[in-house]
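Hi W.,

Here's what went into the run:
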Amino acid sequence: MKTIIKILFIVSLFQCLSCADDLPRMNENIKDATSTSGDMFFSKVLVNLASQVGSTGYTANGTPAAKLFAQLVTSVTYTEGVQYIRDFSWNPLYDMLRDLDEATKMVNLVNPQSPAAEVQKENQLAILEVTKIYINEILVESYGNVPYSEALNIDNVQPKYDNQQEIYLNLISRLSAAIAGLNPSGTGFGTADLLYNGNVGSWLKFANSVKLRMGMRIIDAIPASGEQAITEAIAGGVFTSNSENALFHYLDDQNNGNPHWAFLVRQNLKYYVGTKPLVDYMLSVDDPRLDAYFYPATTGPNAGKHAGAASADVVPYDNYSILGARFRELTLPVIFMDYASVEFFLAEAAERGIAGITDAKDHYNKAIAASFAYYGVGGVDAYLAQPGVNYDTTEGTWKQKIGMQKWVSLFEQGFEAWTEYRRLDYPVLQAPASAYSDVVPRRFLYPLSEQSVNEARYVEVLADMGGDEYNIRLFWDIY
Amino acid sequence: MISAGLKEVYELTKLNLTQFPNGTIDNPYYVIENNQQSDDRNRFVGNASLSYQLTDWLEVYGRVAVDSYNYIMEERQTDLIRVPARYNIRNVAFTEANYDLMFNYNKDITEKFNTSGVFGTNIRRSKNQSIYNSTSGGLIVKDLYAINNSVANPPAATETFTKIGVNGYFGSLSLGYDKTYYLDVTGRVDQSSTLPEKNNTYFYPSVAASFVFSELLHSSVLSFGKLRLNYAEVGNDAQAQSLFDVLNKSAYAFGSAQRYSVNDTKNNENLKLESTRSWEAGVETSFLNGRVSYNASLYNTNTLNQIMPVSVTAATGYTRKYVNAGDVRNRGIEMTLSGKPLVKQGFSWTIDLNWSMNRSKVMSLYEGVNNLNLGNYSTDMSLNATAGRPFGEWRGSDFVYLDGKPVINQTDGKYLKSDATSVLGDMNPDWIGGLMNTFTYKNLSFKFLIDMQTGGDIFSEDMAIGTRNGLYSNTTGLNELGNPMRDPISAGGGLLLDGVAPDGTVNTIRTEMRDRNHALGSPSAPSVMFLYDASYVKLREVSLSYTLPSKFVQRYGIFGAQVSLIGANLWIIHKNLPYADPEAGIAGGTLQGFQSGVFPSTRNFGFNLKLNF
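Here's what came out:
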């Protein structure tokens, strides 16, 4: 009897298990979502994109380093970035493209129940497409050839690098199609749209302004395609005032504030000061924006005055002009693209005599006025009347006149400032003597990890690009 | 010098003060004293078992074992220069239950022929649940470490919930004949929750045969001799939740906008089990009644379809992907030789010598990929598994050589670097060995162990960065002109590197040593400069033991007592890596052979009292 009880006991141990656990179901993740609506990916991307184009990085890591390469600011504490010590990563850009693909997938799954919902769906798809093009443009303008046609497919872990010019032309034609798909009478992403709060008409102007920029970027390399894009963009309607700027507005909330706030206020990091070329130029033309950009030096030989440091010099922070009051506000917006840039492009179009645009001086003045207005600085008329600023009297070619003023007005758009410096070749900048390159970089170097994770393709692209050096000019940078 | 200064500064002021430029580095003494962690764990382990002898040769055995623990981890960080005060808390609950039912049998079929074995089942269930939260933006009330003391809204709590279930069925059969011939066969079937349903069940066998040849020889010299040959397969399942993708939710909503993104690691719903297949042949011998013994084995192990998240180019939209990666082969020899050269009048001297070598080779990888990046390091160094090559090869920039001499850049006087794909070495040692000497005299025993490794390359991120920052003596002092090398070249400073110009003439271009970007540190210098031979000879352990006379201790009701003095890791007799122990750093996993911020290894001294009741 005792024996039978024992055996029954042992067998009963297994009774509880014979509830035949569904083993595969045990492996489910019951705490994280597996899918959600497209707008939540879109919001995520816009926040990340703002951080990419708006923040300042002290290492040569990618988009945030461009502000150093354009010599708008320099880091006086850590000099990796200003010495161009490679640390490039394109992960944030491809991450955003992947999330946008996911958003597109989710929007495509929506089954519209009304004509208005049908329009909204089409608008959402077009807005996602514009955002993808914007990010791809940064990729191509950073590196040159990049994975594109075979990118964003995890089943192909060794994607080839596509020719940069082919990518660029493809982006412009995709942009034209996206513009055609935007219907301003319909709705878009609503409050998930952290750029325009769902206003599709504003997206249309933004898309056309980006198209104008892309057209101008290739005007030297492929004049016909460039002019066509510019003409179409202007006809489609580009920015006509600061109120249409593509701005990302941060919140008055420590968790969702401008990264500069955390950097300068919360962490009190003493890294960035104005550069000598920028501060010297602005002083030479008595530029009132200087006080918006910077606080004057507080100690040392320049105390009370504005002074810039030479790039890569390790010097006391307080002896130079440091980032000004606006950078200490949580809500400082990030500019994805602004009206001033559009007017500078129009001034250039007039000088080049394309797209029927005339009167370069008028557009130049409007650009500078827009920049003054954006920074809330007065005295633009007096500024424009100065011989060193006046379009008729100031020295140099139109590239120099436009290039210098554009550089100053792009102070908060480091990547665009560096890219336009490469295209217009003004201001004239020198690489620091201690830098890792004899010239100011004309491109980013490929992420080092590519040499091992995508080796065969990397070797191919070295042959196609003629190497992986800072001094290799991208296809549109022919002067 | 600097650290002494920091300590004095902290002790005098009790403030977070340092003398670093533009004040971005915290005083470590302040940090140590003000940041407190705590760990609180409750553990419950229990088991119940029953066995019953069904017949004289068959027994049934059942067992339930439960291991369960809860712990709370808290981290408290005070206001530092770059980061505001912060508090976080993680609560983890873990339970594992094992249910075993086994039938053991042992039967002599004839006088010479014996059979034994076990058949049974093991059912394992584990559950791991955690929740984590932290403050954001600092603490409102100083030194109050609680989530509700957060300045900004705390992020949403992070939760994990993982369950694993494995059902196993196994059996073994051992046959022995005349204490001379043995054969063991085992088989096991596992069904795991972590693998895809369609192939979550797998079988793995082993076979072992041995032959005690000394039974046939009856030699007076050979006391024991055995040959063995075995083959075994072992199957392994995946990590939990590595099949299906989930989304990442951002910690904060942006106003009213919720934010989600796709995970950077791509899971794989087609994972297969990973397995190892190995065979081993060995000999065990003992001579002269155990005065000398010698064992050796040869093995070959193939690890197939290893489940790992491999690094992929971010251009795929992901940074890692779970795959079944290929076939890695390890082959090697292991030998031990023991002897007692002296046994006399209560004195004995024993020598134990062991020696082994292993050679690895990556036979294949996955999806047409020939190189797997196992890790990237500062500078351009990477650790790789490349098809046809040893597992764990270092790649990075090398010198550019001309007739065996490094070529110097004729504008800045620095070394020219090859591209970052040069193979520079591999992390695997050529061989490792150990020698233990034990001297015993009556109740006193003294022993010491010397360990050594030959070969293997170790990459020191610490040397790369430390040299860059001018910590090491090769970056300072006088140059060949007798001037401080850190002076500008224009003032007679700088350094003339030994090498040649690209045309083969002796280098005459001096290089600046004034700032961190100098020629000898990362990243100016080729990465190969920071790859070192990991060989070492170490006095691993010394111990002195005394066994108390049993007559003495038995008076106190103690069966036996031994006191020992033990010293471990006492002396690195020889090494080639400067300023660090070649064995310090990350151990385990695939990320081996590199050092980054390693702590000095410590000598350990212990006192050991062993009592048997």
